Amino acid sequence: MGSGTVAEKRKAIRLQYGELFDALSKLLFELDPISINFETNTDEYEPEVGTIIPRLTHAESEADVREIVHEEFCKWFDSKTAGPIEDYDAIASRIWMEWQRHK
């Protein structure tokens, strides 16, 4: 995606994917895979969404999405905090549906 800060890249992705970015941020906040939803911090998962969305173009299935999301959470946090990949089944299913709707 070129140079620029992480925040600039996330802003560009948000502009490009608008509704999808917001939907995935809301979805992750709702499902809260790493328990950081304190009800007022609704933008908490935006950094992860900013790195997940560009990778969705390579996803060919819900299983691919699960792997992508889990990998990103392991990168952003660590594998212990992210937990096992199986914990991402519901998230992957919902993200896959949103991605299909977006395409």
Features of the shown structure:
103 residues, mainly alpha, Endonuclease III, domain 1
What's the short version?
By secondary structure, the protein is mainly alpha-helical. It has five helices and no strands.
Notes on the structure:
- The protein is mostly helical and about 100 residues long.
- The chain has a single domain, classed as Endonuclease III, domain 1 (Orthogonal Bundle), CATH 1.10.340.
- The protein contains 5 helices and no strands.
- It has helices at about 5-30, 45-55, 60-75, 80, 90-100.
Instruction: Report how far apart the termini are.
Output: 20 Å
Overall number of strands: 0
Tally of alpha and pi helices: 5
Q: Shape from CA axes?
A: globular
What is the topological layout?
Elements: H1 6-31, H2 46-56, H3 62-76, H4 79-82, H5 89-102
